[in-house]
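Recall that a protein's primary structure is simply its ordered list of amino acids. Everything else, from secondary elements to tertiary packing, is in principle encoded there. The following example makes that idea concrete.
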Amino acid sequence: MAREKTAKEKIVIANCGGFWGDDPTAARRQVEGGPVDYLVMDYLAEVTMAILQKQRQKNPSLGYASDFVRQLRDVLPACAERGIRVVSNAGGVNPVACKEAVEALAEELGLADRIKVGVVLGDDIYDGLADQVAAGQALAHMDSGAPLQPHLDRVLSANVYLGAVGVVRALELGADIVIAGRVTDTSVTLAPMMFEFGWSADDWDRIAAGVVAGHIIECGAQCTGGNFTDWHKVPSYLNMGYPLVEAHADGSFVVTKHPGTGGLITEHTISEQLLYEMGAPSYLSPDCTARFDTIELSQEGDDRVRIAGIRGEPPPPEYKVSISTADGYRAFGRLMISGPRAVAKATRVADTIRQIVADAGYEEFRAQLIGHDSTHPSIVHGEPGEVLLQVAVRDADRRKIQSDFAVRVVPMVLASVPGITVLSDQGRPRASEVVGYWPALIAREQVPVSVQVGAHAEDVDDAVPHGRNASPVHVPDRGASFEPTGTPVQVPLEQLCLSRSGDKGDTCNVGLLARSPEIYTWLKANITARFVAERFASLTQGRIDRHEVPNILALNFLVHESLGGGGTMSLLVDPQGKTYAQFMLATEVEVDRALLDSIPPSARAA
């Protein structure tokens, strides 16, 4: 049943989605924009898994990313005609139902005899979770170390981050569309490269190259100029170009986009994305450990960046598991407050609501002034003419939230300060379920992986290969010394660096990318973990880890316990750390004028 194929030297992989809710026209634009061999889509963040789990609880036929099926409707005839294959983790917590929906679509479009749909299974371990714990799998929380056993009665879902092997086998069995559940974001890009180039699972350097390629394009337009520090350099955000990977059999690849599309691809846009959600430069995945500190970038032309030199090592012996738990309820209320002394008035209203609901004893109450200090302390002098007050609570008792907190917010428009109003679409706050995130590890041998293509099903061996050792890795330091001019200047950190931030549960990473080798040397000496801890003192309650990534002139900081428990349960306005990089770049520092002079014209902030 396996499809005959000849080895290729180059394939083009097109990303057309970085999260569930991304641009619904991206797939069509990628297919119509030029030659591609594969469409890949990443839908599954931790928050998304919680949403899909809620859907499946209400309707057993749901629980997958329905946007996937809608996007396929636009492109399936063209994909069938041109032999474009599709790989996605759109299966969410119900990949079989997603497979059935795609097969029904193919039947409706008259393509049932031309489209084979494959599905990768094994990531969902919810039904056997209690047995796993009883057999000795502690599934301890990766941050707190707490064992899962006392919390089993609150578990809603449990999904393992699988690697690329199952997807590769589905492609070998002739699948035109491969649907997975919780495979890693990078695997959907790595798998086509392994399949087409015939890479073995222990070819660590090439496997690492596929992981890096997947990491760069997994968030769609975020590597083509989206969220870019030097946003003013992006020619246009209209018709935003989504990334293409021109992958070669030797493991090198070029990141580019279709001609005539918006956005920008430079070494800096790619380097920023490399830092996104990064921890240590030894990047762990179920397929390998990719050494991000060996990546070599070079600008090959307009909107073309070549990546090579990547080294890899064996993966860890365990899978990561994403477990969701029932963690009570939360509710948000918002009031617009304007006019003279808007901040003082909003603070007074917040304090009043806090006192009114104090006797109820909520697990958490939080008030934030959007437009002033909702994500971070104010970085400008003076006072805004209006602020949006957000008050929020979290508690295990839904009825208490509904009967005590929810009814107290809107009455403030008649019973407090002048210049206050409720937003037209806001109304009375309503309690919603909170789904907690519990990251853990499980032995690989405890997770059987299988694939189905059409009516054919088989098991897949995803054990760590032991055939090849990784060769030693040498990481040179690209920093450079500089001759001080003796002239000190006060500048925001943005003049010296670019930055990108993102979330992993309750930990936010903040990466700093130096604009010159001389600045990198200064960064290493001056931007310490303590410096970052002081900058984020109002938000973080945990430690700060610092990692050096000299090949791209970067430092990466992990700011633990800084997101209010993580995106699914946080009361923060920014529960995913998207603003943290910009707040870091606003920090004023004193440096020698020589550092500013060391920045090449093309790398300057303005």
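The first strand starts at residue 10 and ends at 15. Residues 66-82 form the longest helix (17 residues).
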